[in-house]
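Much of our argument rests on the idea that a fold can be written as discrete symbols. Part of our work consisted of pairing the sequence of a single chain with a tokenised description of its backbone. No coordinates are needed to read the tokens, only the vocabulary itself. The record that follows shows the chain in one-letter code together with its fold in token form.
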Amino acid sequence: AGALVAGPGGYAGADRELLELTVARAVQRIESITGLAGQTADFAAMSFEFLYDRSRHLLAIGYNADQFRRDASFYDLLASEARLGNFVAIAQGQLPQESWFALGRLVTTAGGRPVLVSWSGSMFEYLMPMLVMPTYPGSLLDQTCRAAVARQIAYGDQHGLPWGVSESGYNIIDASQHYQYHAFGVPGLGLKRGLAEDLVVAPYASVLALMVAPEAATANLQRLAAAGLEGRHGFYEAVDYTASRLLRGQTSAIVRSFMAHHQGMNLLAFAWLLLDRPMQRRFASDPGFQATLLLLQERTVKAPVLNPRLVTQSEGRDFSDRPEASSRTLTGFDTPTPAVALLSNGRYQVMVSNAGGGYSRWKNLALGRWREDATRDHWGSFVYLRDDASGEFWSAAQQPTLKPASNYQALFSEGRAEFRRIDHGIETHMEIAVSPEDDIELRRVRISNRSHRRRVIEVTSYAEVVLAPPAQDASQTAFGNLFVQTELLGESQAILCTRRPRSAEEATPWLLHLLGSECAPQGEVSFETDRMRFIGRGRSVAAPRVLSEPGPLSGTSGSVLDPIVAIRCRVTLEPDQSQVLDLVTGAADSRAAAVALVAKYRDCHHADRVFDLASTHSGVTLRQINASESDAQLYAQLASAVIYANAALRADAALLVQNRRGQSALWAYAISGDLPIVLLRIADSRRLELAQQMIQCHAYWRLKGLAVDLVIWNEEHVGYRQRLQDQIMGLITTGSEAHSIDRPGGIFVRSGEQISPEDRILLQTVARVIVADSQGSLSEQVNRPLPAESRMARLTPTRVHRPGAAPEPA
């Protein structure tokens, strides 16, 4: 102001203009701030009533806008972040005070002091509301927060590590190289199972603890900084001490990321300690909140209901529902029904059986020809091997040559299928995976010479080309083949196939098949796209003509009557030498995109990346639906009965013959009948876990590209309250399958009392799999043996026929 004073007479002209400009800008800024304050007030005026359940006095976790129904799960614990929203809604007059007292107050002990139980035992649940809400010494919430921090400190000391466990990122990345996020907690504080199986320390949890135990939290933060947790933008997200996620020789892994909301909570916690609780003073100054603050001053109960079992139950893997199974399944090829592996990135799907048959599909198009045939299983993509000296030939899997091997193994795991066999001193190891990045499948064949002499092996790939919907190919095979054209890219060692459009609106898909060039196959690489030339007249894929006539393939391309893709190369192996060949098959929307994939996957380094990412992607997929490896193996077993009909899981033959209705009768229940149907019959709400498993199984199949209609047949006797129906719908709407209700490839929940007897027979007849809650657990039903085959007793003659003498001819 002194700079603007011109003297006793007032302000100079220029200074006056500057003062007026300053005032105008100040007024403008005040108006802007006032507008922002009004806007934030509008944001705060959100409606809670549509989430409020008046019978439970609780807030639902969400609302399904598509189904116009509230979720069936509720926020029901006081020791959680939900108490902040609940308090605000009460202060605004939207909820009654009964809602606050309906929040659960289950109490356990930590360090000899009573403490409220939370869901996951995380620091976030206990301390996050304190960032803005005031706390009162001696109250139930104050004592709970102090006991929770004390338990966190003791848990860190127990392991000799820094403390502070909360929900955070951890040392697992997805296909996009992003860290995964999970709610971690301390055993004894949370209801969640298996809390002791992970040990992830998040620095922001210690910063939150500054509001409760500032000295201990400061010392812990200094310890974390000395361990390398301090980064460019503050503390890193977390440090993971979980042994199962560490490389050999590692004791910890730093999660090198920054999360904005965690850094924001850090700033509020610092303000709480250094600026004397500014946010809490603002909170308490609101008139509506002032009238409700008494709720936060609730005292500790004198005789709490203690739950000491929480500590012991959550300490280790005993708290899990069932032990984790091995990540691999070992089978032979001679099984009553084929076992299958499902590989997918969401767009490209591969199904392969334990004998080597199967299909590849992309965006609902069949890339190769496949038919359901559980007895022969001879359809799919194959790799032939032939010994140049002896002329003996076999295949990388059991199919299609059916040649017996000295040793044969099929190993299925999440994200990968493997086949190992030994034939005539040659060991073959084939791995199959689908890339999460691109729409391709990779078949890596490692050939090892276990004999004591030099061997020359001829390797030939084979697959029939379809590029059409599976149903269309099954009904018009010969006609559909007329539209497929093939093209050879000799320098790139690849074959391109496309389908000529039958109309201007029809899309033009492209298929690619290539041999990775940097895998250094020796000798000339040749191609074939004519099935007749490959197999020959009167032959089959078990012994095609090209295996009895060594040498390069014909190189036929263009418009052929029966299109295939086949690539041949020769490999020379010294004793104990190995050679790796990469065979890549994929699909694209245009020729340019297909050529780009060919150029990319000629480099074996990109092929190596496929297996690394496939393993990570499969783990992410399981965590997305909250399934374990043992769950996935069980669901894959059940998928085998969906793909290949299995009498053990279908209706009895006596029931099948009673059916008199056709597919159109299913339409009344919104079921098309075009997809395989799996039927779940459930009548007892105490066995709801079976329904939960089947819903999770359906989600697993959907992520793996297996389209199935899951029909849940509710056999509960319907009364005024449809309890079981509501529980089943709650399981669906609160999970990843909420969008699939009553849609093709989705879930259909129907009441048994609303299904006519004729339609009941129909549903059981068309169902590929029938699961019932009266038949035991899902595992017991999946592993149920086939019904015993009834054999007629051999005829035992009781009299011997002695023909009489033949009459003399006339």
Remarks:
- Residues 1-6, 303-327 have pLDDT under 50 and may be disordered.
- The CA atoms of residues 209 and 217 lie 6 Å apart.
- The radius of gyration is 34 Å.
- The first strand starts at residue 52 and ends at 53.
